[in-house]
Amino acid sequence: MHKNPTRYGMLLLVGIGLAATPGIAAMPAPRSMTPAQLDEFATHYYLHPRPELIAAAIEGLDSSRFLEPGVGSPIGPRLNGYFWTFVGFFAEVFAANPDRVDEWQKLGRKQEWQTRDCLQAALKYSQPGALLAVNGPWVLRPGAILSLGNSWGSADEARWGAFFASGNAAYLRKVVAQLREIDPRDPTVVSLAPMWSLARQAPEHPLVRTTLEAARADADPHTRALIDDLLTKDVEAIRKQVADLAPSSFAFDPYPSQKGLRDAGYYGPVSPGQEIHPK
User: Fold this and answer.
1) For the chain, what is the domain count?
2) pTM for this predicted structure
3) Which of 192, 189, 187, 233 is nearest to 209 (CA)?
4) Tell me: the pLDDT tens digits for 16-49?
5) 2 assigned to some structural domain
6) Quick one: which H or E segment has residue 153?
7) What number is the average pLDDT over the span 77-101?
8) From residue 88, how far is each of 4, 20, 135, 162, 171 by CA, in Å?
9) How does pLDDT run across 248-258, given as a tens digit for each residue?
């Protein structure tokens, strides 16, 4: 159990801008990435694509524990870890580098089962348009057996991972489209998750704000009001807003201070200073 987990990456000051991610561009070619390196690498890959480091990212997945189930919460344990975020990430990397997929899959088969499973699922979704064709909040693994933990998961987690790899704003538009599903009379952790992830990612990725501004013009009044909140309120204000809407569902966040790949999921905000450690 991690008693003092490192707060990996994504700690750049708001407003620094895209040029403030030198870590990837300057990163040497390690044999295996540390969790901190993998977090930074995956979250900002689209800014500095370096396929020559993908092997090190694959080697580092097992030890990072990003794919392991998370701790429990009022809505149950995070059964998939960050499985679907990395499925989306590797799906886009595979699609952009088809000549290296066999090499990476061969390396993946030497890893533990979580990494093997993740890369196999990513291969399924590396076909053009496969992830973009997924609508709604859930993604189902092609040919999956529903009783398996990784057979389904959050589509938005996969969309964020795919965006981190590609910079394709179409994935962001899919996340923004989920805002219309928030019912203020009966909000749920699933419906509120897109709003929280957008709030946490916007300071780190200016394209998120650009996408929100573009979506506002054609949005219905309810969705436009939510977009206005995201464009005008800081992260702490959004944390309080979603916590007030669904206090029982949003009482838990295993990584309260982090952005990036670890903010692409269901878990909502906690009170400032509260820390829940991962398994």
Assistant:
1) 1
2) 0.80
3) 233
4) 223 334 466 666 667 899 999 999 999 999 999 9
5) no
6) strand 152-154
7) 89
8) 29, 24, 14, 4, 10
9) 554 444 333 34
Amino acid at 251: A
Distances in Å between the Cα of 73 and the Cα atoms of 19, 76, 78, 108, 121 are 37, 5, 8, 31, 26
Give the domain range for residue 168: 18-263
Amino acid symbol at 21: T
Query: SS3 for 221?
Result: helix
197 inside domain: yes
* Residue corresponding to tokens 């805002």: 179
Residue 153 pLDDT = 84
Residue with token string 């977009």: 227
Query: Which tokens is 108 given?
Result: 């993946």
Query: Would residue 9 count as lying in a domain?
Result: no
> Please, what sign has the CA dihedral across residues 127, 122, 155, 232?
negative
Task: Please name the residue that has the structure tokens 């429990």.
Answer: 72
Please name the amino acid found at residue 241: Q
pLDDT by residue (tens digit) across 150-192? 677 889 999 999 999 999 999 999 999 999 998 877 777 778 8
Q: Is residue 142 part of a domain?
A: yes
